[in-house]
Amino acid sequence: MNLLAVSINHHTAPIELREALYLGSEDIKNLVDDAKGKLFSEGLVLSTCNRTEFYGIPVNKNISYFDLQNFIIERKHSHNISPEHFQCFLSREAVKHLFKVITGIDSLLIGDNQIFKQVKDSFIISEKMEFAGFLMKRVFDSATIVGKRSITETEISEGAVTVSYAAVQLIEKIFSALHKKSALVIGTGETGEIAAKHLKDRGIGTLAITNRTIEKAEALAKTLNSKIVPFANFKKHLHEYDIVISATSAPGLILTKEDIEVLIKKRNYESLVLMDIALPRDIDPESKNIEYVFYHDIDSLNIIVEQNLSKRKAEIPKVQKIIEEELDNFFHWYNSLQAAPTIKNLRDYFEAIRTEEIEKNKNKFSKEDQEKLEIVSKRIINKILHHPTIELRKSAESGESTPESATRLGILRELFGIDNHKPDEEKK
Amino acid sequence: MLNLIDFLNILLPFLYLITFVMYSYDFMKGKKQLANSKRLFLFITLFFHSFYIVIRTIHFNHPPITNVFEIFTILAFAVSFSYFILELVTDIRGTGPFIIIISILFQVISSLFIEHVVVVKEVLKSNLLGTHVFSALLGYSGITISAVYGLLYLILYKEIKLNQFGLVFNRLPSLEVLEKLSFYSAIIGFTLLTIAIVIGVIWLPKAFPDFSYADPKLIGTSIVWLLYGFGILTKLLGKWRGKKVIILSIVGFVIAILSTMLTNFLSLSFHSFY
Fold first, then answer.
1. Are A168 and A199 in contact (CB under 8 A)?
2. Does A169 touch chain B (CB under 8 A)?
3. CATH class of A163-305
4. Which residue from A minimizes the CA distance to B241?
5. A427 pLDDT more than 70
């Protein structure tokens, strides 16, 4: 199989270069427009914040991944990018790389399952642009199976691996029904925003946002359909919330231990969760010594993150096993697209039908006629298969499998349902 | 039938042990491979145990409440049965090992020392006494389960406070759930103890000529009852919550155990039959 793939990712290039090569969906469409038919007959372009990758079946055998690299570099006009920033893959290795990417074991955040959707979205673009042909569709189908199997059969995507999500995981170990709880997020920076989104996703009952710049709080509150608490008097309302997540960029403490002591009394000692995910910290860490107050900062949340990352790393061998199994399945299918096995399978298929029908009906004929029936039916089958066999043999004699011949063979196998034949059955 | 009783007597500790191993395996591995089979096995164990109690009652012509070791087999059954009901109602399946181990303890002691008591005091054959003892034992199993969940709550509370995110953190349900499980078991235990006390106070003076309100077991149970009543009331009124109620439940359990041991083994009153 002559599938080519190049990838620039967090293993090979610093963030500035990855950013320079990032392709939005419009960029991808333009790239596909330029590549389709000239360089590649079919392919897939994937671009996320950590990787940009191009998979393609070249239109002729003179095209190598160096052409592909140059094609991308020229398009992005970035002088700092050179060939050593690329990983290059061919055939089985290219398919294997896509399988590794879709399972998240190649991700910066191991087991990150967002990549699954990103690969799917890229494939949809290829399909819309008529850049996903017979082979790429099969590659994508196999990649989807690998992705789904790794999620259901392993724990590669289990547990929180970001501080914001670890905070939510910890909150769920304290409170059981988040839909009955209320939370206040202080600060609308990236961390605060992600934490607020996680809480919303987990079905928090009431969500409120406060921020020094009210406009930012309003913008986030609008997206998340949550309340806004003015920053100037948020302390007055603090006792109304079971969960407080603080993620401001304030240089000092915004909540002291005394504030928290007053707060817990006001709450009649009902459990209070304080997640301080700011650096420097927003809440006095001594608050953790107050009964019914569950105070956690970035360091303690990082313990959970590290534990979950170790667990995910331990799952990598299981995912690799799935990848190898599905690679074997894929290449078993692909190799069946070679001409010789297809001729044999096709003839076996017709012969099986002939034998079955003869067996069923031979009693309706006399002994003499039975022999004639055998000869005539064989002759009919041979005549039917004569032209297809000649055409398929031409491919076999040329000794190479072009995408066109593979597509032709694939359609033939699909039409006659030959792929349903098991390998051991074929041997028999 | 005696052979069958003896066979079940030996079989029961093993059944509880296998159930315990299944629950522990799921707890340690954190997978839910045995989620349904462990519940089914617990059901089978309880089925055999109830069958054992029934044939024992029929064969010896009295409910198995006439000595400590008969009481222990009832306790083993009551604890696991209460847990089984709680698991069915809440569908929280991860805490089984901590409860079933109590049943193993009671059943092993019972199986080792239980005897074939044929002749018992006439008063111990009463059905009303049977109801009194059964409700008391179920009540005690309720507060035992409440205490176990309370203990798990305290362990998890401490782990979360100290940032120790180990096995307990990963496997146990949330603090709020543990608090609820402990509270609901306490309510069930309290209700059944109330029934036992009411029957006892009405019927015992008639059955025993030497009945006394100063009986240590009666006083001990009353203290436990008052303690749980107080805890449940303050919790329902919203005055106390969380750790405070949990500690009260554990204290109640310790007092219940101590008073039972003291009154059964040390004092001699009408209430000590064995």
1. yes
2. no
3. alpha beta
4. A270
5. no
Which chain A residues contact residue B156 at CB under 8 A? 173
| Residues B212, B269 contacting (CB under 8 angstroms) | yes
Q: What's the rounded Cα separation, in Å, for the pair B107 and B20?
A: 13
> Inter-chain contact A176–B177, Cβ cutoff 8 Å?
yes
Distance (Å, whole) CA B48 – CA B19: 13
Q: Which residues of A are catalytic?
A: 49
Tally Cβ neighbours within 10 Å of residue A357. Answer: 12
- State the DSSP string of A74-139: HHHT-TT--GGG-EEEETHHHHHHHHHHHHTTTSSSTT-THHHHHHHHHHHHHHHTT---HHHHHH
Average pLDDT, rounded, for chain A: 86
Distance CA A20, CA A16 (A): 6
Chain A interface mutation, best of B176, B179, B235, highest count of A Cβ atoms under 10 Å = B176
Longest dimension (CA), chain A: 108
Contact A294 B161 (CB under 8 A): yes
Q: How far is CA A160 from CA A273, A304, B65, B76, B175, in A?
A: 18, 7, 52, 40, 19
In this predicted model, what pLDDT tens digit does every residue of A192-246 receive, in sequence order?
Answer: 888 899 899 889 999 999 998 888 888 888 888 899 999 888 888 899 999 999 9
* Interface check A296 vs B, CB under 8 A: yes
Q: From the centroid of its chain, how far is CA A219?
A: 30
Residues of chain A contacting residue B175, judged by C-beta atoms under 8 Å apart: 173-175, 271
Per-domain residue ranges of chain A: 4-157, 163-305, 330-427
- Place domain A4-157 in its CATH homologous superfamily: Glutamyl-tRNA reductase, N-terminal domain (3.30.460.30)
Q: What is the pTM of this model?
A: 0.74
Alpha-carbon distance of A233 to B43, in angstroms, equals 57
Task: Mark yes or no for CB contact B243/A173 under 8 Å.
Answer: no
Looking at the partner chain, which of A177, A271, A303 has a beta carbon nearest the beta carbon of B165?
A303
Residue B57 CB-half CA count within 13 A = 17
Q: Is A275 on the interface with B (CB under 8 A)?
A: no
CB burial string A267-292: b at 16+ within 10 A, e below: bebebbbbbbbbeebbbbbebbebeb
